[in-house]
Amino acid sequence: MLDPVMYTGGVYKHDLIMELVEDLGGYLLQKNVTQSEVILLLLIPSDDMPIMAALAKELRGELVRAPLAGTEVAVVTPTLAIHHLPHSACDVAEYLRRHGAKSNMVGLARGVGREIAQINEYETDLVNEHDACVFMFGNFVQCIVEKGPLYRNINVPVVVTGGPEIPKEKMPYAFEYVSSVGRISHRSKKANELANLDRIVAAVGRALDRARRDIEKDPLTTSPPRVMDAVREQVPEVQSSFSPLPIALNLNGCRIKLPYDEFHQAVSDVTFDEGMRLGDIATIRPSRMKRYILVRIKPESETGFVI
Fold first, then answer.
1. Measured between alpha carbons, how far is residue 172 from residues 156, 160, 201, 204 in Å?
2. pLDDT for 41-87, tens place per residue?
3. With b meaning 16 or more CB within 10 Å and e meaning fewer, what string describes 111-128?
């Protein structure tokens, strides 16, 4: 089992961390360097965590568990209008990124109106390509409760935010509800506002951990990070992508940001050391996001083996 962690420390000798990750059979998901500080998102075998923690302590760095690392989270607002897209939505998306997730903002085309709000098939499919989603509502109890059908058909865990306190039984389709996050006309800077963002991150983390436990019951044929490394090696065009994250990891696959029509065959032909092709152990289809390549790894129960 690989645990997602975040290492924060100085640039000096951070390559020792990267070398140890490779030696332990882990994966480097992302590396961000800001002046004299480096932030590494890593996947480490659970049994080897004490070894990594000892090296991080020696380098005067910080190693913390990051349940959002290697995932994509959708931040959904009813519309892109100013009264539905306040500062809080941007704050949540940015805060999720700081904790390791790849966040995407989605504004619904017909989310206006308490009783007539809708979500269409395209938007539903797009949100379902993520690992979890955060639906951001306002300050009125009745409006938040009656908009429950917007996420009724969402297959990934849904965390709902709003201003008032609402009992869980009134929101049967939500994984969790986080209150005190309604329409805010300013950036979140106060201690209580940052604490509310921490509560959202914690709720999303619990949702992702539950999804990981479900996957453990029927393991994937191979791990998404291994697919990412194989695609990087055998499909060199991905290195030329203008996207800041050419391959976005999911819990059950990845999104490769290359045109599907042009490169899906090359991705399907990616071969592993065991002789298996990616097309044999995964479903490869066009993504709803800009028609990128979406890879969904088949579970062991479907292929009969794990590599």
1. 14, 11, 21, 17
2. 999 988 899 999 999 999 999 999 899 998 999 999 988 777 666 67
3. beeeeebebeeebbebbe
